[in-house]
Design goal:
The structure holds 2 protein chains of 2 kinds. Chain A is mainly α. Chain A is built from 12 helices and no strands. Helices cover 75% and strands 0% of the residues of chain B. Classes of the chains: A mainly alpha, B mainly alpha.
């Protein structure tokens, strides 16, 4: 297959060495260093008998953070997934006009490229008690009597941070599944309709098999990202009120850079990484399946 | 089914209209707030359209509060990140696509790089911060260039890998058979064909670096190295919040990636899904 040249095997090494050295020093070394940090005391730098890990298991703030992120990830992913799927189906099957399609395409593109910090600002401008438009609209329409302190009451604060994520990333689910729908052969759908299959049957039996690998992909990518939510929380609530929105990343950040115990922060984050490895293993398998599928089509 | 056709069509219209409004309104509210004078912010009820539109919030940010410097920092950091990311991605991909590298080794390298995409930023940045402190790069643009390159590399490598596979190897090989050097064959034949891909990777790398907040928050401390997203956040964490300036900062933060990405939007979805999803042109 390949044209071989003298010196190719040397060239191979010469080309691959710099990036691999870069990754070794910038990824592998810091991660190993992090493990070392997690096993030592933050004052003395001495080995401390897994004290940081023991502490994490007894730390109520840490378990609060775990609980908060579990709620956040579950709610956000369920809503984004269902809403994204419904939007993809509804828009794909109902909108025929080119400019309406273009409008939704553009509307949904904006959140995808908005910096999460700016997305936080966008919603802070609407949720804030004094200037916020949301309270004003709710009061005007008579839905609420007293203004809601969106960012400083537990349930509303959780709602607020979730709403930003849903606003920003539902379009991502939409785009991926919409692209998947385009691969479904139109004549199969039409034939099924002629034969009297209901809309739901057509979805379940014809479209769903095409969408399934993409659904998995989207779920895994969203899982990996919602798990480390940080930016817009720092803009909206900074973890408050209390520890309601103090998600893992926010808590670890505070431990490391507000309470200045980097070693404990490293230990807490290593406890998190186990989950991440599981996520990656799932994705790896999925990508292989997806690649196999593509090869079959070609 | 037929009889409900009209009402279901109405419901669909209502649903999509509501969705469109939910996506338009926050952006509208941000832009309109950024054009209000400070006095207008405290009136009740809040005005939908500024009574007397003014660019004062922008002027205040860029001229008086030194946000121009933050934009400049972001530009320099992101451009350096693009150069470093593309260089490393090309160095990795060329041997994998054009030289004899065993399938197993190739797979291992690509998987290892893909794994980086799933390391939570906070886990990476804690030891990174400790190392950066000891080597004296804390609060410099270089600390950010390095970590942005790390986190942009998976995407760049995967996109480039996909594009490189699509370019027929025969062209390059014909040149090699005719006696061209590998360097010449790459620079004169393959690289020009890769240029749309390289442009797309550059823009997406820029946008993702521009969007970062966590790393900049932890690895920089002064306006000498801070990025624009830190500037946006600084306005939020102030004691007295000026909504118009905060909105203006968010407008700038959002507009820059939008303007850039419009040019490469075809590649955006592929980038976000590691090439699994390709949009039809």
């Amino acid at each position: 297959m390949y044209v071989r040249r003298r010196g190719d095997s040397l060239l191979r090494v010469v080309l691959l060495a710099p990036p691999l050295l870069f990754l070794l020093s910038m990824v592998v070394y810091p991660l190993l260093f992090g493990i070392r940090m997690s096993l030592t005391d933050y004052k003395t730098g001495q080995w401390n008998n897994f004290h940081n890990f023991v502490r994490a298991t007894q730390d109520s703030l840490f378990s609060d953070a775990v609980k908060a992120i579990a709620i956040y990830v579950t709610v956000v992913i369920v809503i984004e997934f269902l809403l994204g799927l419904v939007l993809a189906l509804v828009i794909y099957h109902n909108i025929k006009s080119g400019w309406l399609k273009a409008l939704f395409y553009f509307l949904f593109l904006i959140p995808l490229v908005t910096p999460p910090v700016a997305a936080g600002v966008l919603f802070r401008l609407m949720y804030t008690p004094s200037y916020g438009i949301i309270n004003y609209l709710l009061q005007m329409t008579g839905l609420i009597q007293k203004e809601i302190l969106w960012l400083s009451q537990p349930a509303p604060a959780m709602f607020a941070v979730i709403s930003v994520d849903v606003w920003q990333w539902t379009p991502f689910v939409f785009f991926v599944l919409f692209a998947g729908l385009q691969a479904v052969p139109k004549d199969t759908l039409e034939a099924a309709a002629v034969d009297g299959a209901s809309g739901f049957q057509r979805f379940r039996l014809i479209e769903l098999p095409y969408l399934r690998p993409l659904m998995l992909l989207v779920l895994i990518l969203r899982l990996a990202d919602t798990f480390q939510v940080f930016d817009h929380v720092m803009v909206l609530t900074q973890g408050g009120p209390g520890t309601v929105t103090q998600f893992l990343s926010v808590y670890i950040y505070k431990v490391g850079f507000k309470f200045l115990n980097l070693n404990y922060a490293a230990a807490a984050s290593i406890m998190v990484i186990a989950v991440v490895i599981l996520i990656f293993m799932a994705l790896n398998r999925l990508l292989r399946i997806a690649e196999g599928g593509e090869a079959n089509e070609a | 089914m037929k009889h409900s056709w009209k009402s279901s069509r109405f419901l669909v219209g209502l649903f999509l209209g509501a969705v469109a409004l939910l996506y338009l309104f926050p952006v509208f509210w941000m832009v309109t707030t950024s054009l209000k004078s400070t006095g207008e912010l405290y009136g009740y009820p809040p005005t939908l359209v500024p009574l007397r539109p003014t660019l004062q919030p922008y002027r205040s940010l860029l001229m008086e509060k030194g946000y121009g410097q933050l934009i400049r920092n972001s530009l320099v950091i992101n451009l350096l990140t693009i150069v470093l990311t593309l260089t490393l991605a090309l160095l990795i991909n060329y041997p994998l696509a054009r030289l004899r590298v065993s399938a197993r080794a190739g797979r291992a390298i690509l998987n290892g790089i893909l794994a980086i995409r799933f390391i939570p930023g906070i886990i990476m940045v804690i030891p990174f911060y400790a190392i950066i402190l000891t080597v004296g790069l804390y609060d410099t643009i270089w600390s950010l260039v390095l970590i942005y390159t790390v986190f942009n590399l998976p995407l760049a490598v995967y996109m480039l890998n996909g594009f490189l596979r699509e370019i027929p190897i025969e062209l390059e090989e014909a040149a090699l058979v005719d006696g061209a050097t590998r360097r010449y064959a790459f620079l004169a034949i393959t690289l020009p064909q890769l240029s749309p891909a390289i442009l797309a990777i550059a823009v997406i790398t820029f946008a993702l670096s521009w969007n970062d907040f966590l790393f900049a928050l932890i690895l920089t401390a002064t306006p000498a190295a801070q990025t624009f997203s830190i500037g946006v956040w600084r306005l939020v964490s102030q004691f007295q919040i000026l909504w118009n300036e905060m909105a203006a900062a968010a407008v700038i933060a959002t507009m820059i990636p939008i303007l850039l990405l419009v040019f490469v939007r075809r590649y955006l979805l592929a980038a976000l899904t590691f090439g699994v999803v390709r949009e039809k042109a």
